[in-house]
Amino acid sequence: MSDYYISQISHSDKTAIQGVTALLQAEEIRLDTNLDYTCGMYDDEMNIIATGSCFGNTLRCLAVGSDHQGEGLMNQIISHLIEVQFNRGNTHLFLYTKCSSAKFFGDLGFYEIARIDGQIVFMENRRTGFKNYLKKLKDSSALQLQTLTESTSATNRKVAALVMNANPFTLGHQYLVEKAACENDLHLFIVSEDASLVPFKVRKQLVMEGTAHLDNICYHDSGPYIISNATFPSYFQKDENAVIESHAMLDLTVFTEIARTLGINRRYVGEEPTSLVTGIYNNIMSEKLPGNGIECVIVPRKTYGEKAISASTVR
């Protein structure tokens, strides 16, 4: 092998970024908009022949030029990115890849969490990571669920879930939680990724204070397995609708396992009449969740006057 070396690429280095973009495009991958570290492998003529990036604790935009595939370069890129992540204090790592590449990353120590055939595979570098997460969810809610079960007929019991970013928490969010909690025992997942304007710690405090009058809620940090729109990758999806569909299907695959663990049989979502993304997402949930024994309940938005209450308007 020639003298190849790996170097960090600054996102302000337009020439290098153009080289990375061209390499990715040749492999039918777009440069992701959410990246906080990028590296390139250079040959002895200063051509970028392989690349990889990070965002948070995920690895992204991984590619090797067609003339150099089979030389083991991706192994070196992955090793470099893992070292970068470990130096940041990130030891639990995730990646998204095409189905055709999953076996390759499996050989590098990544394990499949969920798969959408023909579209995307979600992987992590811990063999029992997702299993341990499910156990933690079950253990953390066991005491409260036991108390609720003692006062509720098990045969008629409805257990629901809400996933909420609450950026920030509004009266609309409060209305949605109150409705779900009135009709069910409720598992409330607060998206814990810090990719929002309002930090997670503040969002969680607002949610818990705004719902403190309800006594049948189990609160959960979403952790890394419930994926937000902000961090879901779009770089190898053909168009926006494909991104939304892949995100929804992957989320539902992961959520179905969570629901089985916690006995959840309903999922509540807020209606978003002006959002294409949420509209497609809600339609997919309405179609797919019942097949897994989970009812999808779409709640019309609470309004103030004639306008729907919106966190984006608050921001």
Beta-strand fraction estimate = 15-25%
Task: Give the low-pLDDT segments.
Answer: none
How many beta strands in the DSSP annotation? 14
Shape: elongated
Write a compact overview of the structure shown.
By secondary structure, the chain is an alpha/beta fold. The protein has nine helices and 14 strands.
Description:
With 315 residues, this protein is α/β, with parallel strands linked by helices. The protein has helices at residues 14-26, 73-88, 102-107, 129-150, 171-183, 200-210, 240-262, 276-288, 311-314, and strands spanning 5-8, 37-42, 48-55, 58-64, 94-97, 111-116, 120-124, 159-164, 185-190, 217-221, 266-270, 295-299, 303-304, 307-308. The protein has a seven-stranded mixed beta sheet, with helices on both faces. Strands 10-9-8-11-12 form a five-stranded parallel beta sheet, with helices on both faces. Strand 8 (159-164), helix 5 and strand 9 form a beta-alpha-beta unit. Helix 4 packs across helix 7. It is elongated. The mean pLDDT is 87.
